[in-house]
Amino acid sequence: MSEPAVPSPPSPSGQLRPATVAVIAGRPAHVPDEPLNVPITMAATYVAGGDLEYGRYANPTWTAFEDALGALEGGRCLAFASGLAAVSTVLDLVAQGGKVVAPAHSYTGTLLQLADLEARGRIVTQLVDITDTAAVAAACEDAALVWFESPTNPALELADIPAITAAAHAAGAYVVVDNTFATPLLQRPLADGVDVVVHSATKYISGHSDVLMGAVVTSDDDLHAVLKGRRELLGAIPGSFETWLALRGLRTLHVRVERAQANAAELVSRLRTHGAVSEVRYPGFGAIVSVVLAGGAIAADLLTHQTRLWVHATSLGGVESTLERRRRWKAEPTTIPEGLVRLSVGIEDVDDLWADLGQALDRLVDPV
Ligand SMILES: *Cc1c(COP(=O)(O)O)cnc(C)c1O
């Protein structure tokens, strides 16, 4: 008697919706007695004669993660050791002396890399207000690469991605979007013609504040080959255990983002009416909220020390709610208010989150 045919998993690139893709993409074929998940492959080298050869070139655990994130973003993904490893590999595409346009309010590590490259004469950088589309388009004219975040960190400004992409392409520049804040569930820049998407997978993709990883996604096969070559040469590869953890986190991305976003929207409406808060910045989606406190830096520092549930910590995108006064970092641009506190809203019960944040804010208005 012949074996019944083993159904193969559906292709994630078909008509499936993002929540399904997050769960099924990058899985092994459905074979009896085989695990549902890709195992952690611990290998520095492989028996010669096949496709993998050496651990810096390829790893089956990376491939599973890359298939899943690539399917969500709509391109081909490469995993990196950290978000900044991905950033530096992409910035390395710029030829000697080329110009990079980037938002003045970018992630500080990206700004520091740009400043470092410029100080060493590698590139020229022009920082722009990403909300001023006409000024950004003008800056693109002699650019080699246009880099942006939207929403920006921590100002939460939004860019007109299709318009800026068109202007950059007209000038022959690459366009890169750091999609860490939005995730592929809320924004898919490749569909707007962007060349490369970068992620700090440390944040929402892995989602549990226990792993550092990065990723690059592109729908251009030539760029993919170049970036893969740079990863092999520069060696910014992730560990297979980290990659497995990030993939495990990615399986619940849609559920976490949905819950965190709902919590954020509710907290925004409560924060807007609180007397200790002079400004609430929220782009209308996602789960990062910035509040500017009426009492400036002192009030902001007090707030970060007077919450119990909310953890005072840098980073973002985990299941747990965290908060931080961004100007405590020397590298943060001085155009970010001293009293700005960035909230990374997690997936806890929103009333518990508000009770804790609310009591800490109340004490700023009426200290006891
Ligand atoms: C954290 C972060 C990075 C850097 O990623 P690491 O994983 O910490 O190296 C880059 N971009 C944004 C928007 C980030 O939030």
UniProtKB/TrEMBL annotation:
It comes from freshwater metagenome. The lineage of its organism: unclassified sequences, metagenomes, ecological metagenomes. One of its GO terms (molecular function) is cystathionine gamma-lyase activity. GO terms for biological process: cysteine biosynthetic process via cystathionine; transsulfuration. Its cofactor is pyridoxal 5'-phosphate. One of its GO terms (cellular component) is cytoplasm. This is Unannotated protein. Pfam families: Cys_Met_Meta_PP. Belongs to the trans-sulfuration enzymes family. Keywords: Pyridoxal phosphate. The keyword Metal-binding does not apply.
